[in-house]
Structure formats: structure tokens, C-alpha cells
TrEMBL record:
Family: Belongs to the pancreatic ribonuclease family.
GO molecular function: nucleic acid binding
The protein's name in its UniProt record: Probable inactive ribonuclease-like protein 13 isoform X2
SMART domains: RNAse_Pc (SM00092)
Domain Ribonuclease A-domain: 1-123
Database matches in PANTHER family: INACTIVE RIBONUCLEASE-LIKE PROTEIN 13-RELATED, RIBONUCLEASE
Gene3D superfamilies, per database record: Ribonuclease A-like domain
Source organism of the structure: Mesocricetus auratus (Golden hamster)
Amino acid sequence: MEIAIKNFRTLHVDYPMVRYPKGFLGYCNGLMAYVRGRLQDWYCPKVHYVVHAPWEGIRKFCKYSESFCENYNEYCTLTQSSFPITVCTRGSKQPPTSCSYNSTLTNQRLYLLCSSKHNAEPIGIIGLY
């Protein structure tokens, strides 16, 4: 579970937001190169969410997770607050190994997976609301 918490913080929280050199052709292309390196995976995820807010502001929503998401076999919660989020979406009609991404900056609430029912930490993002 410690690895899942660390991976969430490393791969889904970017605060303050990093600026990538022009050679990466946009924020998501730079970020997803980093994500794939951290995961040591050749596969390019179709969608990846990145939150641009302090860790403590995100973490507090897993303090008490009353819902259990059976599809994920984990506790989950919907944040009360909206967050600035970049949604990295793999370009359409590209194979899973082609990693060209489009960036969309939005401000929305998060569906979070949490490490347990109480005093938990975020371990994943299911989606946006």
C-alpha cells in the first residue's frame, strides 16, 4: 500500500506545475514520458489525470471514506472541492505504444480511491465530476 500512495503522489500530483522544454511538444507529452519511465511500461495510458494542488488539500478527502467501490475493491470518495486538473488524453487513432498526448486543463471534483476506510491516503483517481 505504501508504494500505491507514493505512486499516486508522484504520478498524479504536480504542484507547483512543472514547465517542460519545447522539445516535449506540450505539458502532457513531457509528463507522460516521465510517467512511463516511472512505471517502466511501454504502454501509453489512454487517459491520465494530474492534480495541480497541494498534497494536503487532496489527501484530506480520504480521511473518512464511507463508500466502498466494488469495481476497484477499494474505498473511494468524491472530493467536496474542485481542483485544477490536467487531463492527458492519448491522441485518437493511435496505437497504445504511440505516446502523443493532448492536454486539457479543467477545474473539477475528483473521484478518489483511498487506501482504507479511515485515516487513509489517496491511491488513485477513478474519474472527474
